[in-house]
Protein backbone atom coordinates (compact mmCIF):
# COMPACT_ATOMS: atom_id res chain seq x y z
CA UNK A 1 0.00 0.00 0.00
CA UNK A 2 2.79 2.35 0.82
CA UNK A 3 4.47 1.62 -2.48
CA UNK A 4 1.24 2.30 -4.35
CA UNK A 5 0.75 5.62 -2.58
CA UNK A 6 4.29 6.65 -3.32
CA UNK A 7 3.80 5.90 -7.02
CA UNK A 8 0.65 7.99 -7.16
CA UNK A 9 2.39 10.93 -5.55
CA UNK A 10 5.23 10.66 -8.03
CA UNK A 11 2.77 10.50 -10.94
CA UNK A 12 0.89 13.56 -9.66
CA UNK A 13 4.14 15.51 -9.33
CA UNK A 14 5.19 14.54 -12.81
CA UNK A 15 1.86 15.65 -14.19
CA UNK A 16 2.11 19.00 -12.45
CA UNK A 17 5.60 19.46 -13.81
CA UNK A 18 4.34 18.70 -17.31
CA UNK A 19 1.53 21.22 -16.98
CA UNK A 20 3.90 23.94 -15.85
CA UNK A 21 6.23 23.16 -18.70
CA UNK A 22 3.34 23.40 -21.15
CA UNK A 23 2.28 26.76 -19.80
CA UNK A 24 5.82 28.10 -20.00
CA UNK A 25 6.16 26.97 -23.59
CA UNK A 26 2.80 28.58 -24.50
CA UNK A 27 3.83 31.87 -22.95
CA UNK A 28 7.12 31.90 -24.83
CA UNK A 29 5.50 30.98 -28.13
CA UNK A 30 3.37 34.21 -28.35
CA UNK A 31 6.44 36.46 -27.88
CA UNK A 32 4.91 38.65 -25.25
CA UNK A 33 4.25 36.83 -22.02
CA UNK A 34 2.07 37.77 -19.11
CA UNK A 35 4.39 40.51 -17.92
CA UNK A 36 4.47 42.13 -21.37
CA UNK A 37 0.69 42.16 -21.53
CA UNK A 38 0.59 43.94 -18.21
CA UNK A 39 3.09 46.57 -19.40
CA UNK A 40 1.08 47.08 -22.55
CA UNK A 41 -2.07 47.54 -20.52
CA UNK A 42 -0.34 50.12 -18.34
CA UNK A 43 0.90 52.03 -21.41
CA UNK A 44 -2.61 52.35 -22.87
CA UNK A 45 -3.92 54.99 -20.40
CA UNK A 46 -0.85 57.14 -21.14
CA UNK A 47 -1.71 57.21 -24.85
CA UNK A 48 -5.33 58.03 -24.07
CA UNK A 49 -4.29 60.87 -21.75
CA UNK A 50 -2.02 62.35 -24.42
CA UNK A 51 -4.84 62.36 -26.97
CA UNK A 52 -7.39 63.88 -24.59
CA UNK A 53 -5.05 66.74 -23.59
CA UNK A 54 -4.53 67.76 -27.19
CA UNK A 55 -0.76 67.06 -27.14
CA UNK A 56 0.29 66.37 -30.75
CA UNK A 57 1.89 63.01 -31.52
CA UNK A 58 5.09 62.60 -33.54
CA UNK A 59 3.23 62.84 -36.89
CA UNK A 60 1.80 66.30 -36.06
CA UNK A 61 5.02 67.99 -35.00
CA UNK A 62 5.47 69.74 -38.36
CA UNK A 63 1.88 71.02 -38.23
CA UNK A 64 2.55 72.53 -34.83
CA UNK A 65 5.59 74.40 -36.17
CA UNK A 66 3.54 75.56 -39.15
CA UNK A 67 0.79 76.83 -36.86
CA UNK A 68 3.34 78.70 -34.78
CA UNK A 69 4.79 80.28 -37.90
CA UNK A 70 1.31 81.25 -39.09
CA UNK A 71 0.52 82.80 -35.72
CA UNK A 72 3.77 84.76 -35.76
CA UNK A 73 3.13 85.86 -39.32
CA UNK A 74 -0.39 86.94 -38.41
CA UNK A 75 0.94 88.98 -35.52
CA UNK A 76 3.51 90.57 -37.81
CA UNK A 77 0.83 91.49 -40.30
CA UNK A 78 -1.27 93.11 -37.58
CA UNK A 79 1.66 95.31 -36.64
CA UNK A 80 1.74 96.77 -40.15
CA UNK A 81 -1.96 97.54 -40.35
CA UNK A 82 -3.98 100.40 -38.97
CA UNK A 83 -6.55 98.18 -37.23
CA UNK A 84 -9.11 98.33 -40.03
CA UNK A 85 -7.57 95.58 -42.14
CA UNK A 86 -5.81 97.96 -44.51
CA UNK A 87 -2.16 98.84 -44.64
CA UNK A 88 -1.31 102.00 -42.76
CA UNK A 89 -0.18 104.86 -44.99
CA UNK A 90 2.58 107.24 -44.11
CA UNK A 91 1.06 110.73 -43.89
CA UNK A 92 2.48 113.30 -46.23
CA UNK A 93 4.77 115.81 -44.64
CA UNK A 94 3.77 118.59 -47.02
CA UNK A 95 1.31 120.96 -45.38
CA UNK A 96 -1.49 122.51 -47.44
CA UNK A 97 -0.35 125.73 -49.01
CA UNK A 98 -3.33 127.60 -47.54
CA UNK A 99 -1.97 126.91 -44.04
CA UNK A 100 1.25 128.83 -44.77
CA UNK A 101 1.93 132.22 -43.21
CA UNK A 102 -0.69 134.76 -44.41
CA UNK A 103 0.36 137.57 -46.73
CA UNK A 104 -1.02 140.99 -47.68
CA UNK A 105 -3.65 141.09 -50.38
CA UNK A 106 -2.48 143.09 -53.39
CA UNK A 107 -2.67 143.06 -57.18
CA UNK A 108 -0.38 140.06 -57.77
CA UNK A 109 -2.40 137.60 -55.65
CA UNK A 110 -5.93 138.90 -56.18
CA UNK A 111 -8.40 139.75 -58.92
CA UNK A 112 -10.40 142.98 -58.71
CA UNK A 113 -13.75 143.57 -60.41
CA UNK A 114 -15.54 146.94 -60.53
CA UNK A 115 -19.31 146.85 -61.10
CA UNK A 116 -21.60 149.95 -61.11
CA UNK A 117 -24.76 149.43 -59.02
CA UNK A 118 -28.29 150.57 -59.79
CA UNK A 119 -29.03 150.51 -56.06
CA UNK A 120 -27.79 152.38 -54.13
CA UNK A 121 -27.81 155.08 -56.77
CA UNK A 122 -24.42 156.28 -58.10
CA UNK A 123 -22.52 153.49 -56.34
CA UNK A 124 -19.91 151.05 -57.56
CA UNK A 125 -18.97 147.73 -55.93
CA UNK A 126 -15.35 146.59 -55.82
CA UNK A 127 -14.87 142.84 -55.40
CA UNK A 128 -11.40 141.49 -54.60
CA UNK A 129 -10.90 137.72 -54.84
CA UNK A 130 -7.89 135.88 -53.46
CA UNK A 131 -6.37 134.02 -56.43
CA UNK A 132 -3.22 132.93 -54.58
CA UNK A 133 -2.43 129.79 -52.61
CA UNK A 134 -2.08 131.54 -49.24
CA UNK A 135 -4.47 133.36 -46.95
CA UNK A 136 -4.20 137.13 -47.41
CA UNK A 137 -5.21 140.14 -45.32
CA UNK A 138 -7.16 142.95 -46.94
CA UNK A 139 -6.05 145.95 -44.89
CA UNK A 140 -7.71 149.34 -44.62
CA UNK A 141 -9.57 150.61 -47.67
CA UNK A 142 -8.95 150.81 -51.43
CA UNK A 143 -6.94 153.72 -52.74
CA UNK A 144 -8.77 154.35 -56.00
CA UNK A 145 -7.74 156.66 -58.80
CA UNK A 146 -10.16 157.47 -61.61
CA UNK A 147 -8.74 158.66 -64.90
CA UNK A 148 -5.96 161.22 -64.44
CA UNK A 149 -6.86 162.20 -60.88
CA UNK A 150 -3.89 163.31 -58.79
CA UNK A 151 -5.32 162.28 -55.44
CA UNK A 152 -7.38 159.46 -53.96
CA UNK A 153 -10.85 159.99 -52.43
CA UNK A 154 -11.36 159.89 -48.66
CA UNK A 155 -12.79 156.92 -46.73
CA UNK A 156 -16.09 156.82 -44.84
CA UNK A 157 -14.77 156.40 -41.30
CA UNK A 158 -17.98 154.94 -39.91
CA UNK A 159 -17.63 151.97 -42.26
CA UNK A 160 -14.51 150.59 -40.53
CA UNK A 161 -15.05 146.89 -39.59
CA UNK A 162 -14.14 145.44 -36.22
CA UNK A 163 -11.56 143.06 -37.68
CA UNK A 164 -9.19 142.93 -40.62
CA UNK A 165 -10.76 141.28 -43.64
CA UNK A 166 -9.20 137.83 -44.11
CA UNK A 167 -9.45 136.00 -47.41
CA UNK A 168 -8.77 132.30 -47.79
CA UNK A 169 -7.82 131.20 -51.32
CA UNK A 170 -10.90 131.70 -53.49
CA UNK A 171 -12.72 133.99 -51.05
CA UNK A 172 -13.69 137.60 -51.76
CA UNK A 173 -13.77 140.91 -49.92
CA UNK A 174 -15.79 144.04 -50.82
CA UNK A 175 -15.82 147.81 -50.76
CA UNK A 176 -18.18 150.33 -52.31
CA UNK A 177 -17.42 153.62 -54.01
CA UNK A 178 -19.82 156.58 -53.81
CA UNK A 179 -19.25 158.00 -57.29
CA UNK A 180 -21.28 161.18 -57.05
CA UNK A 181 -23.91 162.95 -54.96
CA UNK A 182 -27.37 161.47 -55.51
CA UNK A 183 -29.02 164.90 -55.21
CA UNK A 184 -26.68 166.51 -57.76
CA UNK A 185 -24.98 168.71 -55.19
CA UNK A 186 -21.49 167.55 -56.10
CA UNK A 187 -19.08 169.79 -58.01
CA UNK A 188 -16.61 169.25 -60.83
CA UNK A 189 -18.55 166.31 -62.20
CA UNK A 190 -17.04 164.48 -65.18
CA UNK A 191 -16.92 161.09 -66.89
CA UNK A 192 -13.91 158.75 -66.50
CA UNK A 193 -13.09 155.54 -68.36
CA UNK A 194 -10.23 154.06 -66.39
CA UNK A 195 -9.67 153.00 -62.81
CA UNK A 196 -6.68 151.94 -60.74
CA UNK A 197 -7.00 150.30 -57.31
CA UNK A 198 -4.09 150.19 -54.84
CA UNK A 199 -3.82 148.17 -51.64
CA UNK A 200 -2.71 149.21 -48.18
CA UNK A 201 -0.29 147.36 -45.92
CA UNK A 202 -0.66 146.63 -42.25
CA UNK A 203 0.65 150.05 -41.24
CA UNK A 204 -1.91 151.83 -43.41
CA UNK A 205 0.76 154.22 -44.71
CA UNK A 206 0.72 154.16 -48.50
CA UNK A 207 0.21 151.28 -50.89
CA UNK A 208 2.03 147.95 -51.11
CA UNK A 209 2.65 145.50 -53.91
CA UNK A 210 1.11 146.04 -57.30
CA UNK A 211 -2.17 147.73 -58.08
CA UNK A 212 -5.14 146.49 -60.09
CA UNK A 213 -6.79 148.01 -63.13
CA UNK A 214 -10.35 146.67 -63.28
CA UNK A 215 -12.36 147.44 -66.41
CA UNK A 216 -15.10 150.07 -66.44
CA UNK A 217 -18.15 150.17 -68.70
CA UNK A 218 -17.33 151.34 -72.22
CA UNK A 219 -19.27 154.57 -71.69
CA UNK A 220 -17.33 155.25 -68.47
CA UNK A 221 -18.68 156.36 -65.10
CA UNK A 222 -19.64 159.77 -63.78
CA UNK A 223 -17.81 161.11 -60.72
CA UNK A 224 -17.73 164.43 -58.85
CA UNK A 225 -16.03 165.91 -55.78
CA UNK A 226 -18.27 163.94 -53.38
CA UNK A 227 -16.39 160.77 -54.39
CA UNK A 228 -15.54 158.55 -51.39
CA UNK A 229 -14.99 154.87 -50.51
CA UNK A 230 -15.73 152.42 -47.69
CA UNK A 231 -13.31 150.21 -45.80
CA UNK A 232 -12.90 146.69 -47.08
CA UNK A 233 -15.68 144.43 -45.78
CA UNK A 234 -15.92 140.69 -45.30
CA UNK A 235 -19.51 140.63 -46.60
CA UNK A 236 -20.98 142.42 -49.62
CA UNK A 237 -24.04 143.56 -47.67
CA UNK A 238 -21.80 145.49 -45.28
CA UNK A 239 -20.18 147.33 -48.17
CA UNK A 240 -23.24 148.60 -50.05
CA UNK A 241 -25.12 150.09 -47.10
CA UNK A 242 -23.00 153.27 -47.15
UniProtKB/TrEMBL annotation:
Question: For the region Disordered, what residue ranges are annotated?
Answer: 27-111
Give the signal peptide as a residue range, or say none if absent: 1-29
Q: Does the keyword Transcription apply?
A: no
Q: Which domain of life is it from?
A: Bacteria
Q: Which InterPro entries match?
A: DUF4232
Q: Supply the name of the protein.
A: DUF4232 domain-containing protein
Question: Transmembrane residues, as ranges?
Answer: none
DUF4232 domain segment(s): 105-233
Which stretches does UniProt call biased (Low complexity)?
A: 40-104
Amino acid sequence: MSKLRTSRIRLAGAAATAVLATLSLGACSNGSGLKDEGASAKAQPSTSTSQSSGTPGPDTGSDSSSNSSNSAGSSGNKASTNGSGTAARTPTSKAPSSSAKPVTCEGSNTKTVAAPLSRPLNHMLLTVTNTGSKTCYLYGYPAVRFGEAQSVPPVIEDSQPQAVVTLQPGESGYASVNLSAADGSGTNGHTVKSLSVYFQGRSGNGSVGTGAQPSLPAKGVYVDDSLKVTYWQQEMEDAIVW
